[in-house]
Amino acid sequence: MNPTPNPQRRSEKSHRAILDAAMELCVEHGYGNVTVEAIAARAGVSKKTIYRWWPTKGAVVLEAFVELAGTATRFPDTGDVVADLRTQMTAVLANILSGPRASVYAGIIAETQHDPALARELRAQLLDPRVAAARDRLRLARDHGQLAPDADVEMVVDLLYGPLYYRLLLHLGPYPPARLRAHVAHVLGSFAPAPPASAAP
Amino acid sequence: MNPTPNPQRRSEKSHRAILDAAMELCVEHGYGNVTVEAIAARAGVSKKTIYRWWPTKGAVVLEAFVELAGTATRFPDTGDVVADLRTQMTAVLANILSGPRASVYAGIIAETQHDPALARELRAQLLDPRVAAARDRLRLARDHGQLAPDADVEMVVDLLYGPLYYRLLLHLGPYPPARLRAHVAHVLGSFAPAPPASAAP
DNA sequence: AGGAAACGGCACGTGTCGTGTTGACAGTGC
DNA sequence: GCACTGTCAACACGACACGTGCCGTTTCCT
């Protein structure tokens, strides 16, 4: 079933051509209208070669996406949480959650709804590392007194990123940068440490 | 192309059987593993009959879902926004965003990523009315002084519902009821009117 | 009562999938 | 320098679901 081909003998040229062709075709025609045959044709590659290294079309496009997204979504640390989160989320919005690649990303997420293996890959390669990094950055801010000591970082991440995905996947319109600024400011402000001595339930 | 069949002559028996069969099969085998042929077979109906009244499988399942969801997602008005929102969102979570029907709903949303017509139907029949109702309820609360006068109700809705869809569609685990309570309380608390005379940017 | 129209049953052409087979080619080891 | 091993492109194939067309039958409005 799975002869596990030898990665050392893999043609890096074909590998690159396949990833490039997959991303190009998805941007041009939309994720759902791209077939494995079309990717193979554009890459000048046999369909068999694609199936040798990836289980499905979704896995191919996911790898192309991970590669693309991996570069521009790190969390800076200038000492100001609000500014740093705003910087990172602006980059995420610009590169992934809006523009021509947003619908491709949405297509991958759609595919994970009926492909558990792809869902695991999406989490393992894209989501989990970034969520962990976001939590780390928020914990750091909490330790430095920029967030309330009892702030639930998991809830913070949900509140920061949830609405972005919600609007993307439910076609509720884009998230303009100005709105993103207000969004980040409000969420983090709602977890600010109490200035003197008072608490609101 | 579209002879627009006469709704008055429609067989209500077949109509019901199709919707029931569609929902049953989706819950049993998962949205993605259900075919129009299977729905027709289970309903004791010709495939042609389904295609006469719906353009795609997604439209059939969406109608079944709208019918099911329409009953238990109204916004009560007891005077207490926090309690009312918690009540409504608990119902949404119990009936739609968790349990056996959650993955069916996720499957429909997935399909909208490459079916613009279905996306419009989803918004028109499910999302827009409920979002509008939520905004109305929040504006009422704002008028009654339970929310800050400058509270952005659109942002409130995004913060309330965004994380729920985010966790569903990205397979980040369910939203336990206790967490939902804390979530609603925090979000609405973050828009509470300032008690004496102070403002936090 | 009559006729139009929706109905169930069936068969068909299409497109995509994922696999199988073949012969050409490139890297490694003796 | 030569055989070996495994990847490569090319093509063919069966399986499956889609969406449509045609049939004779049944249902319901006028």
Produce the secondary structure layout.
Two copies of one chain form a homodimer.
Chain A: H1 12-29, H2 36-43, H3 47-53, H4 57-69, H5 81-97, H6 100-112, H7 116-143, H8 153-169, H9 177-190
The structure holds a DNA duplex (30 and 30 nucleotides).
Describe this structure in words.
2 copies of one chain form a homodimer. With 201 residues, chain A is mostly helical. Chain A folds into 2 domains: 11-53, Homeodomain-like (Arc Repressor Mutant, subunit A), CATH 1.10.10.60; 68-190, Orthogonal Bundle (Tetracycline Repressor, domain 2). Helix content of chain A is 67%, strand content 0%. Chain A has helices at residues 12-29, 36-43, 47-53, 57-69, 81-97, 100-112, 116-143, 153-169, 177-190. In chain A, α1 packs across α4 (57-69), α5 (81-97) packs across α9 and α7 (116-143) packs across α8. At the A-B interface, α6, α7, α8 and α9 of A face α6, α7, α8 and α9 of B. Chain A binds a DNA duplex (30 and 30 nucleotides) through residues 5-6, 8-11, 14, 35-37, 40, 44-49, 51-52.
